[in-house]
Amino acid sequence: MCGIAGIVRLRPGPAVGQEQLERMLATMLHRGPDDSGIFLTDECGLGARRLSIVDLTGGHQPMVTDGGHLAVVQNGEIYNYPALRRDLTAAGCDFHTTCDTEVLLHAYRAWGLDMVGRLRGMIAFALWDAKQAQLLLARDRFGIKPLYYVEHQGVLRFASTIQALLADPTVSRRLNTDALHELLTWGFVPGPQTLFHGIFKVPPAHLVIVQARTGQVQQRRYWDLPTAVQSQAPRTTAEASARLFELLRDAVASHLQSDVPVGALLSGGLDSSGLVALMRRLHGQTVHTFSIGFEVPGAPQYNERPFAELAARHLGSEHHAITFTLADFDLLPAAVSHLEQPLASATFLPLYRLYAACHAVGIEVILTGEGADELFAGYGWYRGERLAHSLERLPAPLRRRAGRLPGAWLSPAARRVLALGATADLHARYQAWQQIGNLNVADLLNPDLHTAGEATAPLLHPPASSRLGQMQALEAQTRLPDFINAEVDSMSMAHSVEARVPYLDHHLWEAVMGWPEMWRQAWGQPEKWLLRKTLAPLLPAAIVQRRKQGLASPHSLWWQQPRLPAWATDAISSRSLRQHGLFQAAAVADLLRRQRAGQPGIASYLTAVLSTQVWTSTFRVSW
User: Fold this and answer.
1) CA distances from 51 to 19, 76, 380, 489 (A)
2) Rounded to an integer, what distance in angstroms lies between the CA atom of residue 276 and that of residue 273?
3) What is the pLDDT of residues 243-277, one digit of tens each?
4) Is the pTM of this model over 0.90?
């Protein structure tokens, strides 16, 4: 795990300077406290900070071929590097280390750009080909690892963090007003945009190819989800469960490759408990596990501690439990500085605490359960979409009557979907499910901003084999990389911890997404029913049978306090709101009044405003 950075000239000009790269690397000490290095030519410079996980002594980066024709920096892990290394050795390649990064150099020489499709893992890397004067940027299939870039004054800069790009004082800190609309609609900023004007994310499953001598920059997709049901899909529940177990075991085994101890987050839910059970079965060692309990007066529904303790006892883990209280919201400014973009959800705060606990115990690699809900349609809105689609087949009078059912029966999101009608395309339906609420964004923004742009629905690439598959594809291309994976990466790396996500193994996804949708969602079955059946022999019945809870953060209750901490009160004060000029002070005050009066659907907007205000101050953003 590392932080990588680099500069490449797109037109004739001064040689790339070492001091520029040193400034970029200095902002990423937390991503790589163990080592650092720089490679320089007149046209290109690469830099890396390293958190040593594999080949602790021999994995220095950048790695360079004899003669310096190729150089590479990598962030992440290539889980199939031993198999690739064997293939390349058989083809005559001579390796000097046992580090996975060296595989990239030999794979590029052997297979060219096609080598990216052979990689299994979470990875973002940059490879400089001096003979071609070409820089290759690549990001893994699900965007687990971040990679940002900006073109400015005839130079392209890239890095694992936005902070590293801003180390150059000439890079703009101007607000992307279109992305602000996205934030207030979705709760996060979908890629390839960021909230900084001109700074972009390399999209998941894409290459960015930079020709230094012509200045040409191209993007190329190298992987897609399956678009049709496989002919060899399982036909019985027993067959599907057996095949899924082998896929899961293989994914977890690949993610355990490490020269340092590997621990796990353990919420007591199905996904994380299943991972720890498979870890124990694979290597038989005691696993360090970490959970967070919530002590929030009047809100016991947030606390999963009893289930985490049950799972830890059953699995024999060395368990570390920490407690989250409303006072932990004071960590928000520090956490936002690592997020680098504001969010409308505060789930990053428990994650920030969890990974701090991992670091304190000395565990540098953690398995975590993100991705299971996306693959097995575990979120409630998947069930809601299926129900809404069924209601839309009713005669119009009955459909209108269904839309007037009491609020407890239909969520606000479900009402938005039903209001669209059966003819609405899946992009619009997905947007209706994912909106953070029903407020008109224009009413909240400075009038000089709200005409600058509007949130747009995500684009589906490519069409999937079923309605459910298309919704899952949209999720995998938007919310998964740009909210969930970004949150996990930034909060774990804030504490120099590598978070690994076995449920996002692309072999697992290619198999399961190529099966009929009944194996992911079926009438009369609970969410993730096949995963439950597959993991049932390994776990207590109470964990297998419990409904999905998911990591939450009690930001709604925090906002209802009669008195907020001084830093938060100042951030949303009329003075501060006028100073930054993004939000209307009267509208924010009205939101706070409605929140304290108990009106639902408000807290996410307040959290978005607060985190944006903190972000604007932290990064000195202008518009």
Assistant:
1) 22, 10, 37, 14
2) 5
3) 999 999 999 999 999 989 999 999 999 999 999 99
4) yes
